[in-house]
């Protein structure tokens, strides 16, 4: 089955995602930050990356990670799904959605808000894979 890399610093979220995904036969690896991102993604060779936006090292770490992956000719082929509560946790006067996906700003294949229903998440993953 497919290998999925989850990049999120919230233990409850990663535990829940791992349980949901593993119950469907996916192999899940969890990473709590974006340190050594390219090196670890090259070593793991995931089929899909689920990425949070706000991480301890930077409130925009997910955006930056998506751009970094996208710029790499090999790793840029891996589909990235942003799964974030940034719309609920930030005090911005605007939000993010799939409408903001673009090669420059948010170079990912999909965006879902946390919390997400397991069925919606699994359907999106199936589409991306």
TrEMBL record:
It comes from Candidatus Magnetaquiglobus chichijimensis. The keyword Transferase does not apply. Signal peptide: none annotated. SUPFAM superfamilies: CheY-like. Residues 3-129 form the Response regulatory domain. GO terms for molecular function: DNA binding. PROSITE patterns: RESPONSE_REGULATORY. It comes from the Bacteria. InterPro entries: Bact_response_regulator, CheY-like_superfamily, Sig_transdc_resp-reg_receiver. This is DNA-binding response regulator MtrA. Keywords: DNA-binding, Phosphoprotein. The modification 4-aspartylphosphate is found at residue 52.
């Amino acid at each position: 089955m497919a290998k999925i890399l989850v990049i999120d610093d919230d233990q409850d979220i990663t535990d829940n995602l791992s349980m949901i995904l593993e119950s469907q036969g996916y192999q899940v690896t969890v990473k709590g930050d974006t340190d050594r991102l390219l090196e670890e993604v090259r070593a793991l060779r995931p089929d899909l990356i689920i990425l949070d936006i706000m991480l301890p090292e930077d409130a925009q770490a997910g955006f930056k990670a998506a751009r970094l992956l996208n710029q790499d000719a090999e790793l840029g082929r891996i589909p990235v799904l942003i799964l974030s509560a940034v719309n609920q946790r930030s005090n911005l006067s605007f939000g993010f959605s799939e409408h903001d996906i673009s090669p420059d700003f948010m170079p990912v294949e999909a965006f879902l808000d946390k919390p997400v229903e397991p069925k919606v998440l699994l359907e999106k993953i199936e589409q991306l894979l």
